[in-house]
Amino acid sequence: MKRVFAAAAIATLFAATPASAGIPYGYYEFGEMVSELPAEAADLFGQQATLCHLVRKYHIAYIPLFFRSEGYVIAANHCAAASYVPLTADRFAALQAMGIVPKSLPAVPSLSLGQRSPPVAIGLLVAAFVMVVASAKRRQRRRVADLGDLPDATKALLDMLAHAATACGVPRTEAAPLIAVLATHFSTTPVQAQEVQRGADIALARSLPKPRPVDISMLARAVPTAHRQAAMEALMTLVETQGALPPSALPFLRHLSAQLKADAGLAKRRAYANVSPGGPLHGLIRPAKDHDPRPTGSHDEPPRAAPTATASAPEPTVSAGFHTVAEPLPPGTRVAFEIMCRAALKNGLPGPSEVEAIQAMSQLLLRMPLDPTFLARMIAAAANLPDPPDFALLLAGLSAPEKEKHVRMALLVASSRGNTSPAAAAFVAQLARAAGLDDARLRALYAELEEA
């Protein structure tokens, strides 16, 4: 029951080190005096006894790394004895009951603040962290060094999108043209398409298959602050072109989105409009077929080799009371704005959140925001329409993917305050049923919105 104590314990160190290193490492134990014990303790332990706290100190080259408590012990000579008697929890409690050990002492001793956080250990951890960050920065600099003479912001965007495409499992043959289009569109400086395409190929080849959190942080920090909202929109547009994402992509996307510190909700709404019919990227990028499990088609409208019955179908009908006010809008967008205005009204009197959501869609569907007075007139006209609307008539002539997009727009506006009111949820559910979406697909749309 006894151990070698103090200096004698040094002989039991894990001191055998690699011969090539020659640096001692391991641990040794020492006692810290807690309390002198009364004379009665000598009857039990045969000597003038002291209650000690036994501490194990781990070190490299005798520099402390961390400490660990080994509990209470009894020793002589103010804890400087060569041996000691360990105290179990039951024996310690019995000594307290006998009045030999002060009853005010806790059952388990604690380390001092300095022992819990040794300065050397903290210094080593800080140094290790600095080395990890510096290593991540060097890796990133090497990756972007070969991206040609593109602007730094475009290089950072290519590097970020290449890693996002890799994390999302986009095949290389599809990822290269996709991120080239996105980088060209979202670059704030005019760039040569050929140079961007070359940079996209290189960025994909250099992307890390399993980036660490510090690598992901470096991807976001490399993007200039003024460009981060555009970078977030580019990221969300890339995600919008994909179907079901691999589970491993979600932690990457969450961490990257958090580090960009941009408005993810606004970026997602704009990303949806980017690939919608009439959007600036419609027809330029397409969802990867092997990533979209939906039987009704991809996020984008499928290509048509020749006019079909669907192509010649009549345009969806705008409600009569809304048509007069919305007449200045392009014909293909009037139903979308009627649905969004109706959805906004389901939350009560539309506030800044609903107006901002509709304006964000207008910016991308029409390439310009709506005049606030004109938008107010449309909302007022929608408030005077019969309720519930004839959803089948509103959606008549739309393809299945287009119907789903109208449901998405309604959901984005209805949930713009951060949650969806019961009336708004019922409106979206009725619209979804008219669009042919089952409950599972509608729940998936809610889940996608929450993840954004």
Tally of alpha and pi helices: 20
Instruction: Return the domain count.
Output: 3
- Give the low-confidence spans: 1-21, 287-315
Helix percent reads 40-55%
Estimate the global geometry from the Cα principal axes.
elongated
- Beta-strand residue percentage: 5-15%
Mean pLDDT: 77
**Cα gyration radius (Å):** 34 Å
Major beta-sheet overview: 4 strands, antiparallel
Q: Largest sheet, order of strands side by side?
A: 1-2-3-4
Q: For this entry, what is the oligomeric state of its chains?
A: single chain
Number of strands: 4
Structural class: alpha+beta
Distance between the ends: 61 Å
Order of helices and strands: HEHEEEHHHHHHHHHHHHHHHHHH
Explain what this protein looks like in three dimensions.
The chain is an alpha+beta fold. The chain has 3 domains: 7-117, no CATH class; 128-291, no CATH class; 320-451, Orthogonal Bundle (TerB-like), CATH 1.10.3680. 51% of the residues lie in helices and 8% in strands. It has helices spanning 7-10, 40-45, 89-98, 113-116, 119-145, 152-167, 172-186, 193-206, 213-221, 228-240, 249-260, 264-274, 320-326, 334-345, 352-365, 372-383, 391-395, 400-414, 422-434, 439-451; strands at residues 25-36, 50-60, 63-75, 85-86. It has a 4-stranded antiparallel sheet with strand order 1-2-3-4. The radius of gyration is 34 Å and the shape is elongated. The model is unreliable at 1-21 and 287-315 (pLDDT under 50).
